[in-house]
Write a structure and sequence with these properties.
heterodimer, A: mainly alpha, 2 domains, two-stranded antiparallel sheet, 71% helix, 3% strand, B: 523 residues, alpha/beta, Rossmann fold, 3 domains, globular, AAA+_ATPase (chain B), ABC_carbohydrate_import_ATPase (chain B), ATP-binding (chain B), nucleotide-binding (chain B)
Chain lengths: 363, 523
């Protein structure tokens, strides 16, 4: 008996929908084994990860807050990936957006600057993220440099720039030498949706981004262009679409969205600029993009799910002393299974019995 | 009923390969319905049938790619169940597919090595490859990368790869679909030789003259059922066609009194350097094509036809705008989208991956070329209804057969997809249509539909440029025929003067430069 992968005549839409669920199921099985090896009760651990955060209002808000940057970044990344442009540096574009937007917040601090501050911060952050993402895009188009490497390397440049600024020029003089800027003024802060809660305007912006992406990909010629360039490059050229232009465009859009997510995070839940504003949102968003099948609605659901693992990971750490890094292990395993299960969309497993002939011959 | 073993030599022994009541069911659909065939050693057995007749299903079962739902396959008299192609190969069943499975970026030798199950060293294998290719007169340079090779040369790799396994039984799926008469003749010599060596060949084709000439036996399939097994030499092409189609095939007819009008496509001294290491340089190509006229371009594959198509379509741009003039507008520097807006339409040779995005729906593939000038896009938004309308109209006008209203392009058979692609372009009412290999591997019925459509388009006043390796096709529809050789285009001949001999000489390059002719024959 032999297990073979057989190509399907047409892609299976059922599997396309179910494959992320299979991946999640396999991940949970693997995690159960991992928890058992760590000497923790797997059922309690899984409860802490996936059930407990859903049972109180505070955690639910926190899930939405964490999902906001994940979804915004992943939407941008999905455009890149659909167009066969591999932006791995969203984390850096997120940080640059946070830094650039914070620049306005820092410069207007304590002045009587009006309501224009927050919109200006958002705009500048998006522009900075876009410009930062254009560096690898232009290097790819002009010199053929691998955008995977260049965009990834620029993450560390952005990280160190942020580090330098908050330890040096932008450090809060009254901050007891902690590497952080002063708390932003109210005009430089993303407003909350619920008084005293955690949910903020950024979540609404993320939903708008999802809707815009759904319209772009499903209804517009530009979205079609993005899909066809990725799916069949030669046919795309025959269609009159320019792959290089799309590399530039999708990198710029995804950089802008990552930058926007960065400033929203800083001017929202965090409230000031400091190192460690991102628990790896830019990287986790890659998982979100694939888990969500590079589909805007799928990304929204996947973003909420991965946000749940962040919150659940914190709860598991507090309640059961499970290291927070297990969350990253979880996310890594999930991406592995998602990519593996995706092969089932175009292929199917089949059992082959090479011995049947012998059996028949004997009968 | 005719004697299925025409030379009567087989009495008393078992056929090499036999299918008995072979049935393959896909859901409710019977792709093969109780098919019996016997193939004997030293026999070239034709499998004839329209698209969807069940030829591919049958050979896939014989090659172990699919498991029959019922019935059995007997090999040298004993029933066998094949777990997959590698078991088929190890038993001595080889297959050459119509769609090549080659890796473009690997060399000939590497591709052959990947297809072999043996454990011999790469060096030994390469040596054997050269030897086999020499023995059978199928010259190949093992070190060249596949992307540099012409379709004809790629087919040679597939044949040599199959021969290196020393098969007793070889399946060939539409092998001459991509070959010139000369190349086909060379192939027939190879096949006759394989037959003389005692091998059996199952030969899928719908070129009836060729089957009559080459094959000892023909089994005709229609709608998944076996219609008849006969000796094709005792049949006429028309009687074979009737059995295949189940009725008369429509003659392709040119409307009487077709008028030529103004020049709609003019190419002036077009020269273009190759954009890849082993591409062909286009040299001083000039021709003029009037409305109402069909110009055919013949030539062995890989003599610059692809490059000319790219230069005409705008996939490659020329620095000098005047080299390509569409509808009186200098367009050499314009993108493919701009050229479409001028009224040009293009049908490339490769259906999947070039003419269509394989994994996208037909409606999306209608949009692929229709977005430029067919009212499918309003202010950047796609008019899905309009794209679906094109699909429906193409389906209706050109008899595209498909499982549902809007399937993925890759799920259509070659002939039906080609009818869709040609239909998609013709429905745009182009002033100029540039089409490459319009009936590449397409069955007789679909080919007739496509050729008729090209003639009708010319009658309606369009200028049509057809590049083809099928000389019968060109003489059937073209008004004038020019030949491409080494990136140069001969003076067009009026079709009545374009005998096979004259065209064959031009295809060998003899009237261009006598010195190059010898080189070309060797190549």
């Amino acid at each position: 008996m032999q297990l073979v992968l057989e190509k399907r005549a047409e892609r299976s839409n059922t599997i396309a929908l179910v494959s992320p669920l299979i991946a999640i199921g396999l991940t949970i099985v693997t995690m159960t084994i991992l928890f058992a090896i760590l000497g923790k009760n797997p059922l309690l651990a899984l409860h802490a990860y996936f059930i407990a955060p859903l049972t109180d209002g505070y955690s639910l808000q926190e899930i939405a807050v964490k999902a906001t940057p994940l979804v915004m970044i992943a939407i941008g990344l999905s455009l890149c990936y659909l167009a066969n442009a591999w932006n791995i540096g969203a984390e850096g574009q997120f940080l640059i957006g946070a830094v650039a937007g914070s620049w306005i917040a820092v410069k207007t601090q304590g002045t009587d600057a009006g309501a224009w501050v927050l919109p200006a911060m958002l705009l500048v952050a998006a522009a900075a993220g876009a410009v930062y993402a254009l560096i690898p895009a232009i290097c790819k188009v002009k010199f053929g440099a691998s955008e995977i490497l260049t965009s990834l390397m620029l993450v560390y440049v952005a990280d160190l720039l942020l580090d330098y600024l908050v330890r040096g020029p932008w450090r809060d003089p009254n901050g007891f030498n902690f590497p952080t800027t002063a708390e932003f003024d109210p005009v430089a802060t993303v407003p909350l949706l619920i008084e005293g809660g955690r949910l903020h305007l950024g979540s609404i912006i993320a939903l708008l981004v999802v809707a815009a992406a759904a319209i772009l990909l499903g209804r517009t010629i530009k979205g079609f262009e993005i899909r066809v360039v990725g799916a069949a490059p030669r046919a795309a050229r025959f269609g009159g679409f320019n792959a290089n232009q799309l590399v530039i465009l999708t990198f710029a859009v995804s950089g802008a969205l990552a930058g926007l997510a960065g400033i929203i995070e800083v001017a929202g839940p965090v409230g000031h600029l400091q190192p460690g504003i991102s628990p790896g949102y830019g990287f986790t968003a890659i998982i979100v993009a694939f888990l969500g099948r590079l589909n805007p609605l799928g990304i929204l659901i996947a973003g909420l799910f991965l946000a749940l693992t962040f919150i659940g990971g914190e709860q598991a750490q507090i309640a059961m002393k499970i290291p927070l890094d297990v969350t990253k292990v979880f996310q890594g395993i999930l991406l592995f299974y998602v990519l593996a299960c995706d092969s089932l969309i175009l292929y199917r497993f089949k059992l082959v019995f090479p011995n049947r002939q012998v059996a028949r011959g004997a009968g | 009923m005719l004697d299925p073993t025409p030379n009567g030599l087989h009495s008393g022994e078992a056929p090499l390969l036999q299918t008995v009541g072979l049935t393959k069911r896909y859901g409710d659909f019977l792709a093969n319905d109780c098919i019996d065939i016997d193939v004997w050693p030293k026999e070239i057995h034709a499998l004839l049938g329209e698209n969807g007749a069940g030829k591919s299903t049958l050979v896939k079962a014989i090659y172990g790619l699919i498991q029959p739902s019922a019935g059995e396959i007997r090999w040298q008299g004993a029933p066998i169940v094949l777990s997959g192609p590698s078991e088929a190969r190890s038993r001595g069943i080889g297959m050459v597919f119509q769609h090549f499975s080659l890796f473009d970026n690997l060399t000939v030798a590497e591709n052959v090595a990947l297809g072999l199950d043996g454990k011999e060293s790469f060096k030994d294998m390469s040596a054997r490859l050269e030897q086999v290719s020499k023995t059978y007169g199928l010259p190949l340079d093992p070190r060249r990368e596949v992307w540099q090779l012409s379709v004809g040369e790629r087919q040679r790799i597939e044949i040599v790869r199959a021969l290196m396994q020393d098969p007793k039984f070889l399946i060939l799926d539409e092998p001459t679909a991509v070959l010139t008469p000369q190349e086909a003749d060379q192939l027939f010599v190879v096949l006759e030789r394989l037959k003389a060596e005692g091998r059996a060949i199952l030969y899928i084709s719908h070129k009836l003259e060729e089957v009559k000439r080459l094959c000892d036996t023909a089994t005709i399939l229609r709608g998944g059922k076996k219609i008849q097994t006969c000796n094709p030499r005792l049949e006429t092409a028309a009687s074979l066609a009737r059995m295949m189609v189940g009725g008369e095939i429509k003659e392709v007819k040119s409307a009487p009194g077709r008028q030529t009008t103004i020049p709609r496509l003019v190419v002036n001294d077009l020269s273009l350097a190759p954009d890849e290491a082993h591409g062909v340089r286009l040299e001083h190509i000039s021709f003029e094509l009037k409305g109402g006229e069909i110009l055919g371009i013949a030539g062995v594959a890989g003599n610059g036809q692809d490059e000319l198509f790219a230069a005409l379509s705008g996939e490659r741009l020329s620095k000098d705008p005047g080299t390509v003039v569409i509808e009186g507008i200098a367009a050499g520097h314009l993108s493919i989208t701009r050229r479409r807006k001028l009224g040009a339409a293009f049908v490339p040779e490769e259906r999947l991956g070039h003419g269509t995005a394989p994994r996208m729906k037909l409606s999306e593939n209608a949009l692929l070329t229709g977005h430029a000038a067919s009212g499918m896009v309003n202010h950047g938004f796609i008019d899905t209804a309009a794209t679906l309308k094109t699909v429906d109209k193409a389906t209706e006008t050109f008899d595209v057969r498909k499982a549902k209203r809007d399937p993925e392009a890759a799920s259509l058979s070659g002939g039906n997809l080609q009818k869709f692609i040609v239909g998609r372009e013709i429905l745009r009412n182009p002033a100029v249509l540039v089409v490459s290999q319009p009936t590449w591997g397409v069955d007789a019925g679909a080919a007739a539909v496509i050729r008729q459509a090209l003639l009708d388009l010319a009658t309606a006043g369009a200028a049509v440029l057809v590049t083809s390796q099928d000389l019968d096709e060109l003489t059937e529809i073209a008004d004038r025929i020019a030949v491409m050789f080494h990136g140069r285009l001969s003076e067009p001949l009026a079709t009545r003067d374009a005998t096979r001999e004259r065209l064959g000489l031009l295809m060998g390059g003899s009237s261009l430069e006598p010195k190059e002719a010898a080189h070309a024959v060797g190549a």
